Amino acid sequence: MLHRKPAAVTLLLAALLCSCSDNQRPSDDRVNLYEVSREDLPINVKEGGELVAVNEVEVKSQIEGSATILSLVPEGTLVKKGDKLVELDVTDLIEKRASQEISVEKAKNALEQARTAQQILEKELLATLNTAESQRQITSMELQKLLGAKGGQGSTGKNADMVQRLRQLVNPPPPTQGADRPAEDPAQKTRLNGQVHPQNYAGLIAKVQKLLTVDGEDGDPLKRDMGEMANKILQQADTIRLAMADLKVKEDTAAHSRRLAEKQFITRNELERDELAFQSQASKVTIAWNDLELLINYTLQREKIEFRQNLENAQIEVARVKAKNDAERKNSQFDTDAKQKEYEIASDRLATLNRQIENSVIFSPGEGLVVYSKVSRGRGDSEPVEEGTNVRQYQTIIILPDNSKLKCRVKVQEAMVDKVRRGLPAHISAEVRPNDVLTGRVTYVAPVADSASRWSGNDKKVYTTDVMLDGVNRDESLKAGMKAAATITVDTVPDVLTVPIQAVRRDRAVNYIWKSGPAGPLAVTVKVGANNQEKVVVLEGVSEGDLVYRTPPGGQADPKFDQPEAPPPEPLQEVSGDEVTSDTATKRSDAAANYRGRGRSSKQYAQMTPEELGEAKSQLSRLASSMSNWMSGERLERQIQKINAIVNAIDQKKFEEAQRLRDAMMQFSGGGRGRRPSGGRPDGGRGGE
């Protein structure tokens, strides 16, 4: 930059003199010439920046969405804890709070109604369950009443007594033959046995015992108290017993009348009347036995089935009512919980609005000097906040820096960033103290270029670099935000030939300079080495005492040189891990080896010294910057993310992970090499600028 103005004046004078005479070389052309000499070349990186506090308190907006700044404490004011700093416009929030208060009251009323409905429902469910339980108990009692109580809870009579009396009825004792009782007519006895003999109904005893048995119940059913079933059977048995006794009387009367009729002591009509009475009574006995059989086989069986079914239905009804009650209780509880949640959400929202309205006035959390934060305006531009500025939630408005410990933040050009690494010494000069030179060390170098410089379309990309100042700024004469410059000493190359950096030109892959000779300007190829912002080391192509042109001589066309042969490209295919063949893997491994062979260190990260690790991160940074020359869009973003992951792994001392990521990136990108665009200086700029 120091040679631009003389170079421009020289070119202008040369153009004016050449317009007078083509054969005449102006004597002032020597101003554009530089004599090559040997010297020690200090490799310094000097960039301007500003002072930044290491520790600072950021005052941020706590308002949801965005809010407008109504008032601001003047910048540079020394404030104390509790002083008012910012007031934000919360008119919309005040209106929302009024509406939210109504919503909270509605939610509270809905919750109270849900709780009252839950209490009423609980009583209704209890009444329904009690009704079902009562009905189940009634049906159980009815079945017990039919079959008899268990355990002698009722009377002293048992079902066994009823069965015994029925057995006696079915198997009566044989009649005794008295002296006054005539012998029975065999024909009459056979006829009666066929009609009403009790033993014909002996099978009813087993049926009664089965009828008294309840499936699934333990215990002997004959030990139950006699219930309605036993009573009905005994009543019918007594009816049969009386009918059979009456039949016996009428049988004796008919037999006696028959003997009297044989002796003609009575008329035939009287005999037929007595026999008809006997036959009628025999029919009544038969009907009585049939009634007992119907009672046991059908009537009592039906009642038992009905009562048991009623009991089962009552038990099912109890289970159904319980399940239904549980479902309704859960629904009611869910509704109450939902209303509770709605009330809590509404209350929390109201509390949030109240808190935000309270936070509309921001007070200082401690002592400090007020520094306005900057708001991005797009394309890398930013301006300090001011009254009327809209700020987002959690956006920094004011910074209260701790000026006791400062660092200088600069933007290092891409051409020099590979030389800067953590730990390098530096000198810092602040504009407020121009005669003082402060010392410090580099503590941070960004792995990738600033986003503003990457996407703004500017060819020059810069990297944020922090230089920590030594010592403590006790008098606080230096403050955050002040302009400063950092000169970082990266190296010193002793006893080398140097030329101005703008003198080196480039024809694609060939560097050259214009050298003054007896026959006039001559373009010769050179091999360059280290450089700083003013000069570059020339390793081959010039000698001490040669005169070279700082800028191309007038009237000369750009030379064309033979370019070195480029190695043939190796096509690589993106394939999945399962599809990688041994041949493909070998090619990728060779490509990675070629990448390491082109000046990159093949040493593992775990084996590197701290200085070598810093150099490795610088190489990764340069690789990320150069990628924008041949890729863009999502692909570029992915590659930059991979490089950032490697740098982060190195910073966290996860060397194995960093090594794995680097090897994978080299395999799938063919070694990660990019070609520089043709023309320009070795540092990536354009010659003559």
Share of helix, binned = 40-55%
| Global shape | elongated
Mean pLDDT: 81
Number of strands: 22
Query: What is the tally of helical segments?
Result: 12
Give unreliable regions as ranges.
1-27, 572-601, 670-689
**Strand order in space, largest sheet:** 2-12-15-14-13-16
Describe the sheet with the most strands: 6 strands, antiparallel, barrel
Distance separating the two termini: 8 Å
**Proportion of strand residues:** 15-25%
Rg to the nearest angstrom? Answer: 59 Å
Class derived from helix and strand content: alpha+beta
List keywords for this structure.
22 strands; alpha+beta; six-stranded antiparallel barrel; 12 helices; disordered N terminus; four-stranded antiparallel sheet; 689 residues
Could you characterize what this model shows?
Helix 10 (610-627) packs antiparallel against helix 11. With 689 residues, the protein is an alpha+beta fold. It is elongated and about 195 Å long. The longest helix is centred in the middle third of the chain and has 91 residues, at 268-358. It has a six-stranded antiparallel β-barrel with strand order 2-12-15-14-13-16. Strands 6-5-3-11 form a four-stranded antiparallel beta sheet, with no helix packed on it. The protein is built from twelve helices and 22 strands.
